[in-house]
Design a protein that fits this description.
By secondary structure, this protein is mainly alpha-helical. Helix content is 68%, strand content 6%. α3 (48-63) crosses α5. This is MerR family transcriptional regulator.
Amino acid sequence: MKDLKTYYTIGEVALMFDVNVSLIRYWSNTFKQIKPHKNKKGNRLFTTKDIENFKLIYHLVKEKGLTLKGAQIKLKETEETENPTAHIITKLLDIRKQLIQLKDQMDKKEKVHDQNTTHN
C-alpha cells in the first residue's frame, strides 16, 4: 500500500533518491516545477507532485545525462504539450526499480543454490 503522507521533509526526499540533501535543495531552487511549502521553522516540505517532478528530474539528469538546462527545457516542453509522458516515465521508472530488485533477489538465491550444490 502506498504511503499517504501529505508532505515529505527534505531528508526523506534525499533518502528516496539516495542523494544529498544539498542536491534536493539545489534542484528545488533550480526547477520551477518543484514548489516546496515551508513550515513555521522555514523547513522545506514537499508534496507527492514534487516527488513526481523529482523523479523526472532525476531520470533526465542522473540516468539520461542531461544538463540542468537541458532538463529544464525538456520539462518545459512536457508542460507545454500537456503530454502524459511524465506520468508514463514515472510508472516505468517504478517498474524498472521493482524489476531490478527482483533480479537482485533471484541472483542472491541462485548464488546460494550454486554454493549448496558445489559443496555436496
